[in-house]
């Protein structure tokens, strides 16, 4: 029997079996994917093809008191990008095409990316702030959001898994701040795969992953400018930041024209992921009008991300109200966003709507502001400032920096604000469009103080340097410490604290009349110097009047602004009420009830009641002046101890008790204890005798100095140098004696009646906002009722239905005698109407009887060194017999109060325009400087802009 030959396995058989196995594996894989894992992958595919398209709810509208639209919404076109696999593959070319269309049609790309690029392709950060600490915080947030902290942690601590300690976190932050903007830009170029612009070859692209960020940036620079790459980076970065909250559209440009939207619509087939959508945008029809009242919109700061997300905001796209009514009534004005969940195809186009949530508009806010009165006030303010800057001449006075001003007009019997001017203002439409370019941002948020300072010094011929004009803080950042520059986003009407000067004299008149230290008929002989009571000021110093007004009574004293009369009135009140620290509050107790500060011993709220942000200044009182001295003492102590000399009488080895990071904890504690001992003693002046506990305090000072010498090499060296230089031993007792002398000096200055005498004419620590000044004048001339100041009359829903209404509210009462009110109204009328009156040059020809008071208050004694002048302050009311409206005007560097009075007159002209036209048809308004006539107050030029809902009400 023959043996069968063993068949050989051929190559063909092997390949066949391999093919069968592969096919079986593929089939099994398909079965696994399409049957077993069908639900999982179907959900995943659906998720990746789903997009939620937000439908932004229109904000509520803002109306003036006549139903004119101060803030509304308009439908605009926006260009958006939807992220899909196909659109991402073509992202670079798509975005470049879109940007080309935008540029050709003069449209702006939406740009809130804080990493900017200058004309030399040099990266820098712009965080819309000049505050160094805020800048630092924002820079850290920017870098951490983009993962730079992870690399730093790994560099410092390796693959640490535990949570960082505070010290470690501080080390990470320090390292992060060392990373330059240019390095950040280069790193993001690599992280966002910009090297895909250089090649499409897969092997080449893999090699780029091993290259450094600098190397990739260098290659990209050969083909593209960094400025162009940054524009694409804006989109990539937005994708990265929004990826944490799901798949959402990215806005590339907003508020584009209809023509641009049409062009892009025609090109959509070549632009995967791009869509043209319609959405509401905030619009301010009157542009800059009442911008300080309205506020503006801005993107949500990343540092506040969590807070706003908890409130339901989309941090990546939503705008919020900043300042003014927009900020204060954000919760009222903000609508409830809606949107649609849709399915998109591979090109990011909508193929199916899965779910729709309707948006709901916000509620409307109706203001007390009258747009015509507001326009008249702003127009005249601008005219007066331009006159002061360019034309006004006076020997020894330079008003070229009169670039800022504020005015407030109130209804005397309700507290309603009729007009509120803060000049310069801004156009809130700039911010609503999201198209704030770097130049605009720089102007509003971070001006170049170096170049501005040099120009300012040269133009005014100042004998100082930029470092003196705009000194650098401890972080090396220049600051406007002398308040030289106009700040458009700062509301000077509600936040600008200024000394009132003589506009405070009506308040002193109230106190003097109510206290009975002067009366209706008494007269005084005016003097240049108030040297009647040398026991108060000594023989070598006395405040002066700068004028001699002859024989004056209280009415004439108000009219001509006689300082002597008010010095004497304050002195009499001090004596009448006990010549003690309580008597120092003789004027303050009346001023507090009129809204000029609050009693520090009460729980009264420091506010006029206004709905928007405000500062609240105070009048002089013993307790507040003492508190201020405690604050100043901390600097005084450091100064005279550091010099080793007090009052050129006490000499000792200089003691440096200034805070220093390099000090040991022991040295820091000793320094702090020395300062606390002295300031605590000052804080008890008036409550106990200055001698109480003084020996013990001196002993403690000596003990602390001994400890300091042992613990501080700096102090030890100071003592050795002093001993060697003066050939005598340093004495701790001498230091203690110097402290004692300083405390006795403070005791005298804090308790002196000189301060109430200065306060009587609006000097000293008296500082108020224009809003406070208008409110206080209203309170006096209406008989003593202080009303809550308010800007909002009512809230309505989007259909015009009433939601809430705000009625006049009384905050306090002065209970003034009728005779007191009448005397003050008489004196203030004389200031406006008689030849000797300080505002008569402007108001004498105005036919409706009114009252006024001018004030001039210095910024500081050496103000001219820094190009500053005195504040010009003016307060007024009309009509005289039954006041309806009160006005306060402040012009920074305005030199004289009467120079602001035309603004008040312009307000009256518009408020009484119908009365003037009918009862005084021959009255013609003229400018105070040119005597040329004008018509804008009697025939306001602004058109009425209303909407259908308001017109139907």
Automatic annotation (TrEMBL):
UniProt xrefs under InterPro entries: Beta-lactam/transpept, Beta-lactam/transpept-like, PBP_dimer, PBP_dimer_sf, PCN-bd_Tpept
Domain Penicillin-binding protein transpeptidase intervals: 405-622, 699-908
Top-level taxon of the source organism: Bacteria
Record flagged with keyword Glycoprotein: no
Residues passing through the membrane, by range: 12-32
Gene Ontology BP annotations: cell wall organization; peptidoglycan biosynthetic process; regulation of cell shape
Topological relation to the membrane, as annotated: Single-pass membrane protein
Molecular function in Gene Ontology: penicillin binding; peptidoglycan L,D-transpeptidase activity
The keyword Chaperone is assigned to this record: no
Keyword annotations from UniProtKB, A to Z: Cell membrane, Cell shape, Cell wall biogenesis/degradation, Membrane, Peptidoglycan synthesis, Transmembrane, Transmembrane helix
Localization annotation: Cell membrane; Membrane
GO cellular component: plasma membrane
Domain Penicillin-binding protein dimerisation: 55-138, 194-353
One Pfam short name: PBP_dimer
PANTHER family tied to this protein: PEPTIDOGLYCAN D,D-TRANSPEPTIDASE, PEPTIDOGLYCAN D,D-TRANSPEPTIDASE MRDA
Family from the record: Belongs to the transpeptidase family.
Protein name (database record): Penicillin-binding protein
Species of provenance: Inconstantimicrobium porci
């Amino acid at each position: 029997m023959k043996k069968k030959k063993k068949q050989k396995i051929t190559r063909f058989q092997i390949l066949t079996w391999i093919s069968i196995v592969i096919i079986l594996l593929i089939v099994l894989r398909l079965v696994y994917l399409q049957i077993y894992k069908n639900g999982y992958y179907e959900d995943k595919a659906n998720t990746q093809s789903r997009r939620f398209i937000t439908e932004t709810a229109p904000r509520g509208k803002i109306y003036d008191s006549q139903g004119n639209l101060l803030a509304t919404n308009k439908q605009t076109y926006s260009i958006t990008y939807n992220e899909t696999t196909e659109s991402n593959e073509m992202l670079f070319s798509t975005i470049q095409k879109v940007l080309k269309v935008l540029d050709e049609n003069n449209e702006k790309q939406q740009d809130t990316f804080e990493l900017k690029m200058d004309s030399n392709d040099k990266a820098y950060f712009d965080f819309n702030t000049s505050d160094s600490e805020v800048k630092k915080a924002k820079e850290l947030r920017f870098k951490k959001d983009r993962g730079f902290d992870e690399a730093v942690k790994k560099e410092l601590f390796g693959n640490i898994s535990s949570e960082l300690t505070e010290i470690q976190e501080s080390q990470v932050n320090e390292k992060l701040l060392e990373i330059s903007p240019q390095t950040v830009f280069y790193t993001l170029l690599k992280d966002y795969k910009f090297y895909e612009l250089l090649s499409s070859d897969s092997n080449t692209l893999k090699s780029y992953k091993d290259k450094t960020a600098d190397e990739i940036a260098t290659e990209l620079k050969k083909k593209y400018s960094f400025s162009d790459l940054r524009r694409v980076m804006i989109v990539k970065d937005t994708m990265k930041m929004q990826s944490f909250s799901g798949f959402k559209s990215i806005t590339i440009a907003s508020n584009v024209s209809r023509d641009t939207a049409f062009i892009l619509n025609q090109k959509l087939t070549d632009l995967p992921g791009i869509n043209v959508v319609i959405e509401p945008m905030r619009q301010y029809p009157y542009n800059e009008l009442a911008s300080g009242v309205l506020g503006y919109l801005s993107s949500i700061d990343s540092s506040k991300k969590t807070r706003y997300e908890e409130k339901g905001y989309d941090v990546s796209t939503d705008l919020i109200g900043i300042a003014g009514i927009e900020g204060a009534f954000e919760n009222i004005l903000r609508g409830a966003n809606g949107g649609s969940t849709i399915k998109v195809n591979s090109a990011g186009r909508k193929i199916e709507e899965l779910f729709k949530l309707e948006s709901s508009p916000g509620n409307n806010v109706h203001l007390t502001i009258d747009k015509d009165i507001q326009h008249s006030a702003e127009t005249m303010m601008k005219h007066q400032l331009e006159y002061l800057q360019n034309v006004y001449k006076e020997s020894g006075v330079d008003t070229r920096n009169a670039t800022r001003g504020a005015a407030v007009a109130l209804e005397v019997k309700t507290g309603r604000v009729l007009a509120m001017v803060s000049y310069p203002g801004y156009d809130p439409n700039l911010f609503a469009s999201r198209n704030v370019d770097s130049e605009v941002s720089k102007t509003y948020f971070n001006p170049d103080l170096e170049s501005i300072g040099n120009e300012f010094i040269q133009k005014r011929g100042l004998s100082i340097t930029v470092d003196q004009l705009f000194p650098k803080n401890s972080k090396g950042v220049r600051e406007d410490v002398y308040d030289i520059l106009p700040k458009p986003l700062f509301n000077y009407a509600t936040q600008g604290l200024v000394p009132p000067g003589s506009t405070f004299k009506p308040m002193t008149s109230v106190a003097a009349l109510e206290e009975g230290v002067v009366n209706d008929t008494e007269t005084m002989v005016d003097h240049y110097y108030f040297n009647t009571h040398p026991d108060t000021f000594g023989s070598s110093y006395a405040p002066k009047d700068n004028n001699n007004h002859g024989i004056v009574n209280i009415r004439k004293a108000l009219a001509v602004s006689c300082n002597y009369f008010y010095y004497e009135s304050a002195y009499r009140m001090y004596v009448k009420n006990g010549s003690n620290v309580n008597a120092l509050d003789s004027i303050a107790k009346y001023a507090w009830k009129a809204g000029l500060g609050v009693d520090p011993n009460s729980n009264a709220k420091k506010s006029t009641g206004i709905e928007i942000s405000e500062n609240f200044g105070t009048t002089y009182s013993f307790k507040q002046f003492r508190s201020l001295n405690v604050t100043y003492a901390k600097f005084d102590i450091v100064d005279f101890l550091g010099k080793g000399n007090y009052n050129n009488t006490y000499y000792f080895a200089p003691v440096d008790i200034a805070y220093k990071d390099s000090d040991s904890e022991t040295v820091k504690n000793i320094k702090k204890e020395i300062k606390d001992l002295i300031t605590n003693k000052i804080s008890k002046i008036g409550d106990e005798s200055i001698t109480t506990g003084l020996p013990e305090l001196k002993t403690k000072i000596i003990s602390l100095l001994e400890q300091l010498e042992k613990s501080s090499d700096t102090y030890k060296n100071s003592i050795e140098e002093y001993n060697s230089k003066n050939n005598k031993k340093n004495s701790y007792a001498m230091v203690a004696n110097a402290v004692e002398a300083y405390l006795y000096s403070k005791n005298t200055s804090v308790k002196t009646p000189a301060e109430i005498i200065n306060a009587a004419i609006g000097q000293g620590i008296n500082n108020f906002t224009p809003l406070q000044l208008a409110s206080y004048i209203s309170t006096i001339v209406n008989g003593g009722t202080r009303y809550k100041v308010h800007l909002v009359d009512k809230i309505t829903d989007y259909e015009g239905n009433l939601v809430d209404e705000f009625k006049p509210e009384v905050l306090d009462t002065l209970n003034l005698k009728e005779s007191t009110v009448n005397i003050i109204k008489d004196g203030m009328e004389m200031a406006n109407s008689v030849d000797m009156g300080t505002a008569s040059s402007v108001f004498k020809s105005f036919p409706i009887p009114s009252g006024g008071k001018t004030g001039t208050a210095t910024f500081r004694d050496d103000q001219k060194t820094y190009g500053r002048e005195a504040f010009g302050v003016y307060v007024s009311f009309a009509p005289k017999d039954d006041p309806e409206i009160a006005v306060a005007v402040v012009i920074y560097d305005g030199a004289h109060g009467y120079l602001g009075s035309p603004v008040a007159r312009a307000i009256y002209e518009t408020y009484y325009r119908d009365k003037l036209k009918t009862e005084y048809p021959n009255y013609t308004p003229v400018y105070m400087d040119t005597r040329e006539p004008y018509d804008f107050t009697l025939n306001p030029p602004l058109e009425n802009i209303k909407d259908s809902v308001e017109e139907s009400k």
